[in-house]
Amino acid sequence: MTTGFKTLVAKIDFEKEALASFDFLRGKKMKGANIEDYRVFIIYFDDMESDLWCGE
């Protein structure tokens, strides 16, 4: 992992953010689910230098 990513993961309270943003997760948490067990990261890249996404 890069230092920036490690810092991001250490700095942000992902559970707090998830519970503030998603009603269904609050319900799961209230029923005893450990939502941290289901956390995944999705990575994507934005290619601003090519026309791949412009239909060409």
Q: What does this entry look like structurally?
A:
The structure is a single chain. With 56 residues, this protein is mainly alpha-helical. It has a domain at 3-38. Helices cover 45% and strands 0% of the residues. It has three helices and no strands. The protein has helices spanning 3-11, 14-21, 23-30. Helix 2 (14-21) packs across helix 3. The longest helix is centred in the first third of the chain and has 9 residues, at 3-11.
Total helix count?
A: 3
Overall average residue pLDDT: 83
Which structural class matches the secondary elements?
mainly alpha
Beta-strand percentage?
Answer: under 5%
Q: Based on the structure, what is the oligomeric state of the protein chains?
A: single chain
Sheet with the most strands, sense and barrel status: none
Question: How many distinct beta strands?
Answer: 0
Shape: elongated
Helix and strand string, N-terminal first?
Answer: HHH
Low-pLDDT windows of residues: none
The first-to-last residue Cα distance is 34 Å
Radius of gyration, in angstroms, nearest whole number: 17 Å
Q: Percentage of helical residues?
A: 40-55%
Looking at this protein, list some descriptive labels.
single chain, 56 residues, mainly alpha, elongated
